[in-house]
């Protein structure tokens, strides 16, 4: 099997080197996932644009989507990265484990979002009326659903990249569940 390697700054294009520098300035390092995108001339910028787009979702809501999607797609890299980000957004270790399992009993709105995300990912978008209505009942809108699907797509891209390339995880390793 081919061994996939994360490129160094010197191995990527000048435009990607600029992005590396900005990431290092903002995050303190260039995550391996982002570095791997830089093997392609435009993918890193395109992905960061998608990831940082304006959305109707709050940060905690996005982390619900990221954690649930990464768990279902069995991406240890994204489980680990978003466990850290989830903690930065105020979730406890116990809450993160519960979220990754597909629920959030500690918050009615986040629970509906977790269950909706599970259904979307597992059923490839074919979600029951009951689950969709539960999402609407807690205040989500059709505009939110569009953003939820875009966030699932965003996370699925990263999950698949890591699952194929299997480069080292450069975040504290998430608990296996």
Please give a structural write-up.
It is a single chain. The longest helix has 24 residues, at 142-165. Helix 4 (59-72) crosses helix 9. This protein has two domains: 9-51, no CATH class; 59-165, AhpD-like (Up-down Bundle). The protein has nine helices and no strands. The protein has 177 residues and is mostly helical.
What's the SSE blueprint?
Elements: H1 14-27, H2 32-37, H3 43-51, H4 59-72, H5 76-88, H6 93-100, H7 108-122, H8 129-137, H9 142-165
Helix pairs in contact: 4-5, 4-7, 4-9, 7-8
In short:
The protein is mainly α.
Principal-axes shape call: globular
Share of helix, binned = 55-70%
Which structural class best describes the helix and strand composition?
Answer: mainly alpha
At the fold tier of CATH, the topology name of the largest domain is AhpD-like
Assembly type = single chain
The CATH homologous superfamily of the largest domain: AhpD-like
Query: Main sheet?
Result: none
β-strand percent reads under 5%
Order of helices and strands: HHHHHHHHH
**How many distinct folded domains?**
2
Keywords, please?
mainly alpha; AhpD-like; 2 domains; globular
